[in-house]
Amino acid sequence: MSDYHSHDATGLAELVTKGETTAHELLDMALAETRRLNPALNAVTMLAEDAARAAIEKGLPDGPLKGVPFLLKDLKCEARAYPTNNGSKYFEGHTWAYDSTMFTRIAATGVVSFARTTSPELGVGPVTEAQVYGGPTRNPWNLGRTSGGSSGGSGAAVAAGIVPAAHGSDGGGSVRIPAASCGLVGIKPTRARFPSGPASGEGWAGMAIDGFLTRSLRDNCTLMDAVTGPDLGAPYHAPYMAQSFTDARQTPSRKLKIRYVETTLDGRDIHSECLKAVKETAHILRDLGHDVEAYIPPKSLDVPQMMAAWTITVACGTALAIQNAAKARGEEVDQTQLEGVTRGALAYAKTLTGPDYLNAVNQIHAFGRRMAAEFLACDVLLTTTLAEPPCEVGRLKPDNEDFVAYRNGKGGVFDYSPFTAATNASGQPSMSLPLYWSDDHLPIGVHFAMAAGQDAALVSLAAELEVAANWAPMQAKLLAKGGIWPR
């Protein structure tokens, strides 16, 4: 269909409902776009066209996105019909014996999942450059730049127009970082808002949660509504939402106390383009009638301590996943099939004790309480999503076997992405919105955080900004250029 790119997922579903197109025709279009764009982007993997066609022939659920092509991240979202690599040669072609609650709830919307999207090995890192895919995943706005991580394939595929929406997950920014890098909407809800079972009760000490990459806010709200709520036996629940995400999008935002930060949360400088994005957004919000002031977080917030503790939990989680796989196979781990960073995580984990891990979890929770206290005097904390525009491919390539240095060292992960993990640690809802582009057409995401449970208010603010600073025209420019910005 000639107008495939002029609709978001909701719009495509409406065409299916009206009989103006079919699920098979939309799938044909998505597959054609995959064949055209994926050689340059390297974003889509594990094609499962037979499973997609079979789902259509069986009869799709009468959900809000019936017939819309969709992509699953190549990490978690376990589904019997969709094997995975978990971003790793060591897990290449892994099959599942069950369907996760997240997958079944996504499927109930009526989407047609036909492949997975690239991820760094086991989701570790803000770039997507895993050896299992034979090369890096690239940003459609500039093929020399990263599309982000760990949901980097989803970000690239949605921005380029292969699909209008895709699944992601976020353990420290892994939905919001690619959203910022690719000019998309990425939302991390309050901790435990979405299911994580049946394989686990939580990820990375409660820091990880699933999410979605979309061009429009309404698509993100529809998908979040579809998966909201605890799964059977969940160890804890998110606070009750008095209205759906979709209803919140249609509810005017109340006047909010918004405090913006012109540096990192621990006082370091950010790139000039990112600072411009924050200041311009603050100006827009002030014009909308909100109470907007600059703010300097106290040193007692101690973000570096949280980052160090998070590095411990990620190292232990990574080691556990690999050790469990090796045990199930009855073999020793073949470390040549692992990225250097993953080998470093295994080595680092061996130096840690049980008390070390529990102390790290306690430090993360203590940070969450300090972070929550910041919202006693304001409603919204406004920052840039990343400390700089999307970096060049290869700069954060996961070949450094010093796991701590890769993440916490000079020029490492936390220098590049110093904001997003804070709300994973605290469990607060946060989002990256595509409100700014640099002079050379690189997306710069703007980040918003609110107190735990304030998901609806966050979405109402997003809806207000989608009208006031409409990002759709910039997204459409990329699609009009064929999905890859010419250089």
Automatic annotation (TrEMBL):
Task: Please give the Pfam families that the UniProt record associates with this protein.
Answer: Amidase (PF01425)
Q: Which UniProt keywords apply?
A: Hydrolase
The domain of life is Bacteria
The residue range of the signal peptide is none
Annotated ranges, domain Amidase: 25-458
Q: Does the keyword Hydrolase apply?
A: yes
* Gene Ontology MF term list: hydrolase activity
Family that this chain belongs to = Belongs to the amidase family.
Its name, as the record gives it, is Amidase/6-aminohexanoate-cyclic-dimer hydrolase
The record lists the organism as: Lentibacter algarum
